[in-house]
Amino acid sequence: MVMLDKAKHGAAVGQARFMEIQARRQHGRLARQLGEAYYAEKSGQGKHEDVDSAYAALEAHTQTYPPRKARDIMRRGSECVSAEESVGTAAEKMRDLGVSALPICGTDNRLHGMLTEGDIVLKCIAEGRDPAKVRAGDLAQESVVWIEADAPVSEALRRMEDHRVKRLPVIDDHRLVGMITEADIAHSINPLRVAEFVGKVYSAP
């Protein structure tokens, strides 16, 4: 009986995940259609009515499948670098993962800080320090921006804009459970809001 319950639960989780993926794909398609309609109108090859229609379709989809919490849009699990690992090792992980920042975690999987490419360049390379000998924890940013897993997506958007960060750690019960990137945010908000968000995140302080 227990095995059957677990199987049913697993199937339900799998179905929910499948529906989430399908909803994201459809959101992406509708967003592209809106962009194409907008471009066509601006170039004189389309009508404003097409833009309105594409926007209405996207709005209807967003209302049907609203991402309510940070955990709904985060990338589950997150590659960390230990505070004791070298900056050189951290740089290799960033290269392999194709990211510009990594969370620094302890053995308890709790967030101890963030390390960025800028930290490595300015606080290590530029000062003539050996990346193989400097610990990642030595370069950790003093203030870390993060969000609770059950916080609304709008709060994640606000924090990323206010602090101009492209990767936002998600915390649940004091432990790192995932990461939100600018791409995750862009797929979860009104397309007319995306340009404003990107402008704030990438603007100089």
Describe this structure in words.
The chain is an alpha/beta fold and 205 residues long. Helices cover 54% and strands 15% of the residues. The protein has 8 helices and 7 strands. Strands 1-7-6-5 form a 4-stranded mixed β-sheet. A 3-stranded mixed β-sheet has the order 2-3-4. β5, α6 and β6 form a beta-alpha-beta unit. α6 packs parallel to α8. It starts with a helix and ends with a helix.
Secondary structure layout:
Layout: H1 2-42, H2 48-64, H3 70-73, E1 75-76, E2 81-82, H4 87-97, E3 101-105, E4 111-116, H5 117-125, E5 147-148, H6 153-163, E6 167-172, E7 175-181, H7 182-186, H8 191-202
Parallel strand pairs: 2-3, 5-6
Antiparallel strand pairs: 1-7, 3-4, 6-7
Helix pairs in contact: 1-2, 6-8
In short:
By secondary structure, this protein is α/β, with parallel strands linked by helices. It has 8 helices and 7 strands.
Count of DSSP H/I helices: 8
Spatial order of the strands forming the largest sheet? 1-7-6-5
Order of helices and strands: HHHEEHEEHEHEEHH
Which structural class best describes the helix and strand composition?
A: alpha/beta
Q: Radius of gyration, rounded?
A: 20 Å
Strand proportion: 5-15%
Biggest sheet overview: 4 strands, mixed
The low-confidence parts are: none
Overall geometric form: elongated
Straight-line distance between termini: 58 Å
Annotation keywords:
7 strands; alpha/beta; 205 residues; elongated; four-stranded mixed sheet; single chain; 8 helices
